[in-house]
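User: Can you help me understand a structure? I only have the sequence.
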Amino acid sequence: MSFMRASSLLCFGAFVLFAGAACGTKNTGEQIRPQDPTFNNARGGAKDPPAVCHNVQAEGTPLIVDWEPEERGDLEVAMKQGVAVVHYDCKGIKLLPDCHPAGAYGFMGMNKKEQMIAIDNADQAQANLPAHGATIGASIKSGIALKIGLIMVGKKTTTLDALERTSLGGAKCEGATHFVHSATIGAFAMTTGSTGSVGAKATVGDLFGAGGVGASAESSSNHNIDNKDGDMDACKKSDLDGEIPPQGCSALLRVRLLSIAEGAAPPPKAAAATENKPDVVCPEGLVATDGKCAPKTGAAPHDCTITDTIEECTAQCDKGSGESCGMASLYYAIGLSVPAADPVKALDFAQKGCAKDDDSSCDSVADDLMTKDKPKGLELYRKTCYNTYAPSCISLGRIYTGDGDATKGVRFFKRACDAGDAIGCTESARLYAKGGTGLKADMGKAVPLFASACLDEFPITDACYQAGLGYEKGNGVDVDLPKARVMFRRACEKKNTPSCDHLKKLEK
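Assistant: Let's start by predicting it. Here is the structure, written out as tokens:
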């Protein structure tokens, strides 16, 4: 797979639609449209710094659609060699291509989603496109907008939820601040032009040129395709259970970055809270709204986060934010930011959130339906699982395994593993290790899955032990004593006595 193959950085010269139209024909978009800056000029020409430098958080989810094809190709290679590491601050983001700690990314196909994002000013450009946002933003003037159309077909995720600086070695990792936990995969098209030519009614199809490159359902004004990677038709061929994305729809769109820990791993959070990960995490002072980071306003709804109060989450839920409904549901479910847990209110907010397509909300509604209407509950679990929500996949895995269908069980556990969930990795490994009805035992598949679970922030010690045995004895895999020592050591640190015994023997 290569993003280079799908990439096409098109010229930013004028492409005039209906150039031969008869005299007297009016093009309303063109009449109000100032001359557009080119994308290459925007990135390389303007030198003004961003108006505001928003300090990044321990977690961030920047778009990388402004990267050159070669830059995204370098990131793809880094993710194949191990865990990708970057330097990320309010001034920009830079890949450290030669720094790649041990780890791997699994691909998980998802229900195809389309999203239109509008970048209206320099501050938004810098916050959402940190690599080149400063120079791009300097060209976004009054009447000019940057529209980004995304088609999402899957994610690549690692089970590694925490990375300590002590595990980074040498000068190659100097300057590292964050690592890539996951990346959204698909296709994108980005257009810059006047608000008259890329107005609010423009669709993702318009940006991809559904009626020809630059065609618009709103106006026949010129459209300049700044950057484009992928094809809408190729994205329609995506396989929800495929191990790789379809050719022509495999671009990196957005990455989730987690900060590198300076000391010991942070204390565990409530499991339910860590499952409610927002799609967009913003720098300090900004909130997530309509797929981007922007200043908080009174009118536009934004996505509530775990740091907000129940009052804020309720207010944003009422304004239309499904994620905020899901967070309010979580608060009432676990008794956080409220006087006491309230299952009735938790379900009420979950139903509101699910109606707005929030996956964590739908998962909670599915839990409730399993005792009332199992077919509907299973259908809802499938929907959220194929939206890459790992807890729903685990629920399906347990249900099918309990019903004696190991083949379906392992499929859904493996999907959870590919979404970065250590429990999914462990359960799928156990099924492959022992086999079951319709499923042949296969240690060659089991051992790497046990190893993936062991690399989690809070490793499952039995998974580490089983992976260590596999690499020590060559059970289904090649003998690899360095890997065995790593697995045994992680379990021994968690007081797993058998792993400590094996580690002592290997270190003699």
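Now, to help you interpret it: Residues 1-50, 210-225, 266-274 have pLDDT under 50 and may be disordered. The two ends are 43 Å apart (CA to CA). Let me know which part you'd like to focus on.
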